[in-house]
Write a structure and sequence with these properties.
By secondary structure, the chain is of the alpha/beta class. The protein is built from 7 helices and 16 strands. A hairpin with a 5-residue loop joins strand 9 and strand 10.
C-alpha cells in the first residue's frame, strides 16, 4: 500500500504529529522532526484497545494464535463452539458475551475489577447459559495452547480464547486541541461527507463514531478524500457555481 501511495505522489513520513495550528487559511502540523503545511487535514488517528495485563511479547503471540481476540464482529465466527472467556464484568462485558453467544454456548464472564452487573442483566445471562465468575483473576497465562486464568486460591480456568471487553482509548488529542465537536465523548463527530465541525478538517476510520471495521474506515476515507478534493476545487473556483 505504501508503494502504491508513493507511486501516485503521496509522501509517507514516519513520526507522530503533536500539534496542528491554523494560520492564514492553512494548517501547520508539527511533530518530532516533522513540519508540514497543508490546506486541509484528514484525521485518521484510530483508537487503542485497553489490554489485560500481559507482557507485550506474550500479548502479540496470544493474538497471533487466536488465544486473545478483540473484535467479536471481526472474528466471532472463528470462535464458534469454543470455550470463551470475556474479561469485563460490567455492561460492556455483558453486551460482548451476549453478542458472542450466537457463536458459542460456552461463555464465562471474568471480572477485570469489581463485578458490576445489574440483576436484569444477570437474569438475561442466566437465560442464555452465560456464566459469571465472581473472583477477579490473578493472572492470565497464554504460553500454552490454551488461555489459562489463575486465581488467588491457586485454582484456574482454561479457555480456547479470551475477549477483553475493556473498551478503548481514542487517539483524540489532536481533535480535542482543535476543539472539534465530539460524539460519545471521544470520537469525532462528522457529517455524511466526513467533514468535522471545523472547516477543512475531515476525519475517517475508528476515530469517527461508527463501527470499527476496516471496510468502514476505507469507505470513510473514500468519501473524505472526494469531499476534500471537491472542497478545495470549490475554493479554487474550479467548480460550476
Ligand atoms: C486485534 C484486532 C483485530 C481486528 N480484526 C479486524 C478484522 O478482522 N476485520 C476488520 O475489518 N477490522 C478488524 N479490526 C479493526 C480494524 O483494525 C480497525 O477498524 C482499523 O484498523 C481502523 O483503521 P484506522 O485507520 O481508523 O485506524 P488504525 O488502523 O488504528 O490506524 C491509526 C494510525 O494512526 C496513528 N496515529 C495516531 N495518532 C497519531 C499522531 N498524532 N500522529 C501520527 N500518527 C498517529 C496510529 O499509530 C496508527 O498507526 C481489528 C482490530 C484489532 C485491535
Amino acid at each position: 500500500m505504501r508503494a502504491q501511495a508513493e507511486l501516485y505522489g503521496a509522501g509517507v513520513l514516519r513520526g507522530r504529529i503533536e500539534t496542528i495550528e491554523e494560520r492564514d487559511g492553512s494548517f501547520l502540523a508539527c511533530g518530532n522532526n516533522i513540519a508540514l503545511e497543508a490546506r486541509a487535514i484528514l484525521l485518521a488517528t484510530g483508537t487503542n484497545n485497553r489490554r489485560p495485563d500481559l507482557d507485550p511479547a506474550m500479548h502479540r503471540s496470544a493474538l497471533e494464535r487466536g488465544l486473545l481476540r478483540y473484535c467479536p464482529v471481526c472474528d466471532g465466527f472463528e470462535a464458534g463452539d469454543k470455550a470463551i472467556g470475556v474479561i469485563g464484568a460490567d455492561a460492556r462485558g455483558v453486551a460482548e458475551a451476549l453478542f458472542l453467544r450466537t457463536y458459542s454456548e460456552d461463555i464465562t464472564i471474568l471480572p477485570a475489577g469489581a463485578v458490576d452487573i445489574s440483576s436484569d442483566d444477570r437474569t438475561l445471562l442466566e437465560r442464555h447459559g452465560i456464566r459469571v465468575e465472581e473472583r477477579p483473576p490473578l493472572r492470565l497465562d497464554c504460553t500454552g495452547s490454551r488461555a489459562i486464568v489463575h486465581f488467588r486460591d491457586g485454582s484456574q480456568l482454561s479457555f480456547d480464547t479470551i475477549y477483553p471487553a475493556l473498551g478503548s482509548e481514542a487517539n483524540d488529542h489532536l481533535a480535542q486541541a482543535l476543539c472539534l465537536d465530539m460524539a460519545d465523548g471521544c470520537c469525532i463527530a462528522v457529517d455524511q461527507k466526513q467533514r468535522t465541525s471545523r472547516g477543512a478538517i475531515y476525519a475517517a476510520g475508528d476515530i469517527v463514531f461508527a463501527l470499527d471495521q476496516i471496510s468502514v474506515a476505507m469507505g470513510h476515507a473514500a468519501i473524505a478524500a472526494t469531499t476534500l478534493h471537491n472542497d478545495l476545487r470549490n475554493l479554487d473556483g474550479l467548480t460550476r457555481q
